[in-house]
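Figure S4 source data
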Amino acid sequence: MEERFKTFTVLIAKINRSIRKIKTEEMAEFNLKSPHVSCLYYLYKEKSLTAKELCDICDEDKAAVSRSILYLEREGYIVCNSDAPKRYKSLLCLTEKGLEIGKVIAQKIDGILSMTGDGMTEEEMAVFYKCLGIINNNLQNICNDYRDNKYLKNEL
C-alpha cells in the first residue's frame, strides 16, 4: 500500500507540474500565465462565461480568477459588457484579440492532449479518464467527510 501511495502522489504531482510548465512555456511569448490560459481557453470554447462560472470550470479560487480577469481586461483579451454592481455574475466575452489567442491556445491544447495519449488506444484513454474521474470523486467525498467531521483524526 505504501508503494501505491508513493506512486500515486508522486505521479499526480509530476503531472500537475508538467501541465503548469507547459502552460508557462507555451504562453511566455504572449506574456500569459497558467490561470490566464485556462480563462481564455474556456471563454473561447464557451463564447461567454461569468467570473463564477470561470472559477467553477477552471477549478481556481475567486481571487485568482479575479486577478486573471483584471489582467486579461487590461491587456484587451476580454471585455465585460455589464455595468452591474456585482460583476462576478456578469458575462465576460473575448475581444478580437482574445479570439485570436483563444484559437491558438485551443490548437496548442488539442495538440498536447493528442501527444499525451501516444501509446494508448482510444479505449484505453476512455478507461483512464473514467478511472481518473472516479478517483477524483472519491477524493472529493473524502475531503467533504473531513470537512463535515465524519472522520476522527486517529481512524486513518
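Figure S5 source data
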Amino acid sequence: MSEKIFSTAKVITRHPANPILSAKDIPYDASLIFNAAVTRYQNRYVMLFRNDYGATEADFLASGKKGVPFAGTNIGFAESNDGINWQVHEKPVWQIHDEEIERVYDPRMTVIDGKVYVCFAMDTRHGLRGGVAVTEDFDKFEILSLSVPDNRNMVLFPEKINDRFIRLERPMPVYSRHGAAEQFDLWLSASPDMRYWGDSKLVLGAEKVPFADAKIGPAAPPVKTPHGYLTTFHAVKYAPNDLYSWHLNWRKIYYAGLMLLDLDDPSKVTAIYDEPLIAPETVYEKEGFRGDVIFPGGMILEDSGEVKIYYGAADTVECLATADVNDLLNLCRKI
C-alpha cells in the first residue's frame, strides 16, 4: 500500500512575501530564524523569534553532514505595522547560558491584562524544562515558573477560564508510554497565579490524529471565537526515506493541525480537522536545516475575520499563512 500524501487545506493562503523573516534580515549573527511568537501589543504587531547562530549549510556539508554544533541560541525581537514587514531590533533581547542552563528558545506569546506572557523551552544539564515568563517592555523577562523535566511546547489561553490561567503543554514520557518512541500527547494544566501548575488533563492523544504516527503537541496559542477556542497543534509522521536536511538521517514530517476546544472546559476537543491544516509543500518548507517541517507559533484573529498564522518552515525561516476564521471553523468536524 502506498503512503498517503497529505496536502494543505484549500482555505489556507500562503503569503506571497514568504519567508517573511530569515537570517539575511537579522543585523547580527544569525543562521536559523524560526518558531517565532507573534501577537498584537500596544497597537502594533510584535515578534519574538528563535535564532540558532554560528553555523551554515556549508559548514555541515564541509563536515560530511555529521553535524556542526551551533555557537548558541538567542531570542530576537521585531516589530511591524502590518504583520508582514518587520523591523528587527539591533540586538537579541533574551539569552541565558550558565553552568546549568544551556539556552532558552521557542517562545510563544499571549497578552493578558496588558502584560505579555512568554512560554518557552529551556535546555539544562539536567533535562528540558518548560517555563512561563512575563514582560512589558521586551527588555526584561521575569521567569514565573519552570517545570520539572521533560515538558515543553507550552502555550497560554488568552484569558482566565473559571478563574484560572490555562496552558496547553507536551510532556515527554518514555517509560510510561510502553517504549513507544516519541509517542507524546497534548495535555492541559491550570494555575491560580501563573506560578503553580496542576490539575493536569489529557486533551488529545497522538493515536487520535490520522496524520501522525509519532508525537503531537501544542503549536500557536489558542484564539477565542464564539464557537470555541480555535487551536493549532503540531503532528509528526515518520518518512520512509531521508528528507532534505543539513545533517544526516532526518525522517520526520511536521504538519500543522487544527481543532476546536470547549469555551468552558478547554480540555474537551469539540471538533477537529482530520487532515493537516498546513503540510510542507513549498521549497522553503521542504529544504532547510530540517526539511518538511511546519510549526505554527503565532495566530492572530483580525477584526475583518482574517486569521494570520505564523509558522516556522524547515526549522530555517519564518512564514505567514492566512485564512478566513469561518472557513477554519467549518473545517473542524464535530466529535
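The first strand starts at residue 13 and ends at 14. The chain has three helices and 22 strands.
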